[in-house]
Give the backbone structure.
Amino acid sequence: MSLGFKGRHIISITDLMREEIDHILNVSSKMEEFSESSSEILKGKILATAFFEPSTRTKLSFESAMFKLGGHVIGFSDPQKVSVAKGECLADTIRTIANYADIIVLRHPKEGSAKLAAEVSPIPIINAGSGQQEHPTQALLDLYTIRSELGRIESLKIAMLGDLKYGRTTHSLAYALAKYPNIELFLVSHPMLRMQKEVSEKLKENGVKVKELETIDSVIKEIDVLYVTRVQEERFVDPAEFEKVRGTYRLDSRLIEKTKDKMIIMHPLPRLDEIQFDVDKTPKAVYFKQAKNGLLVRMALLSLLLTDKTT
Ligand code: NCD
């Protein structure tokens, strides 16, 4: 089946229909085979990574995905080392990179950056994080993880804990979950880190049951997924504001004992102190598996956007 992905940009998870998301997840499971060996699906193709913000998982998994499918990678992760440091605007940088590559993965601190890039780019742009707004490929790998661990995405009770204001992964994941029936979302945060009204209202309009809480205690026994995020220090304009919310929640193994047998703990990573190391031992902690799944999902995306071929 081809849903016509070739040549498309991936800017917001809301641009994808549920059928398209399901297709990407199905192709991702097929990629398991090539993740161990390699393939020639993308032979001769070039991926450019343009990272204006730090990254470990997203950048390296995209690069690894490209190599495993037989393609090549160029790119930068330090904007001080490219002409941006001379004052070049994003649009000109993107137009230039498009001459040398077949697809661009972009991470940028400004809201709207990925959209702007897509407007000027003749080749597909994949948004790998646009400011505090969105991180659609993270949402896809989060859904893949939920589906492979729990066997379904619909009819789930999911708690998001942490920085829901600036954490772009929570926005994309919440929008993605809204495409599935019977989702209950508990948004657990410090009042200063609450999900923006604009996002939570959109979720409600799309049929998600949303409840905002300040602690996890009242729902810990009933949730299927606990999605934890770090406080995004780099997005605070005033460092004193960050100090007020630093370390306000910490998950430890005692709290996890209260959860359902078949619940999972997720985190987009990097973690700071919001999940204590003693939690890593429990089989409920799937955040490193989640990071591994990023490779499969990004292999699927690159093959769909560049060739529409998946085997
Ligand atoms: C996330 C991001 O960049 O938004 N990282 C990632 O891609 N896994 C989460 C974060 O930085 O906290």
Q: What stands out?
A: The two ends are 12 Å apart (CA to CA).
